[in-house]
Amino acid sequence: MCQTVKIQQLKAIFTLIRCFSLGKTLIVKNMFETYTSAQATMTDSTPPVGDPSFWADLPPVHKPPTVIVPIRSLGENHRSRIADHLKALDANDRYFRFGFAANDEQIDRYVDGLNFDRDEIFGVYNRHLKLIAMAHLAYAGDERRSECAEFGVSVLPHARGRGFGQRLFERAMMHARNHGVHLMFLHVLSENTAMLKIARHAGATVVRDGFESEAHLVLPPATLNTQMTEMLEEQLAQANYQVKIQAKQFRDMLQSMQIGWRAATSKPRDNDPPP
Ligand SMILES: CC(C)(COP(=O)(O)OP(=O)(O)OC[C@H]1O[C@@H](n2cnc3c(N)ncnc32)[C@H](O)[C@@H]1OP(=O)(O)O)[C@@H](O)C(=O)NCCC(=O)NCCS
């Protein structure tokens, strides 16, 4: 009798656990379905948060992104890696990036002056946790011009031509829209074909003035889609970064074990010099 009661109690507990896990699955499934249907229906043609007439004449979209790039927002603790990234650029790239061939001290000053609270800095890390691409979206310091932001980007030479520059620009555009920026601009040297292509693909107006060009892009207001997409992309990029950290730690541990193993198993040969 007592045993039957216990079995029934156990059955009840199992049923409860199954209901609970099924409930969780349904909640997650529901969240995912809500998100994907929102993605499908809320394209940029959904009424914006602000005035719809503001973006009646949207520039044509170049093409949908084909590359998924884990772009994450960088904070204070990435300062030294940002400096390393910029110092890895050669004189020509530094000239393109800053408008002059900045030396290492000038790069250090630029990096020290980065304001992570006001501006937004985005980065792409490779699996060795090297910052291979970064972008700086600088807001105008002046309160009255807080609706403008300037964009600057750099990709390490070996990582170019893979769409990182383009994706960073798109991410910065989305972030700027979500933060009420109406005008994004960038200073580009007229010979910088790649950067001008990126700007033109996004629909920017490029005004050439001799060696220099200025590109500006009027941004439509944020939509629920841009806000959700940015949030999701940031979460995925942060998760991707954590996985890379753990994978690197694991590789480093394996490597040190291999070194230790080789040292322990290698027998000194007769003709080896004495230690
Ligand atoms: C400009 C820069 C960021 C481009 O980065 P990237 O990751 O190579 O760019 P993408 O792969 O996204 O390519 C974007 C477009 O430029 C084109 N492109 C890339 N390199 C090019 C080159 N050397 N010449 C001509 N076009 C080029 C690509 O084909 C692509 O066009 P498409 O979409 O029509 O095919 C990179 O070259 C760089 O860091 N340069 C030095 C710093 C700099 O110039 N910064 C910009 C100042 S704001």
From TrEMBL:
Coiled coil: none annotated. Pfam families: Acetyltransf_1 (PF00583). Residues 113-199 form the N-acetyltransferase domain. Gene3D superfamilies: 3.40.630.30. The lineage of its organism: Bacteria, Pseudomonadati, Pseudomonadota, Betaproteobacteria, Burkholderiales. InterPro entries: Acyl_CoA_acyltransferase, GNAT_dom. This is N-acetyltransferase domain-containing protein. It comes from the Bacteria.
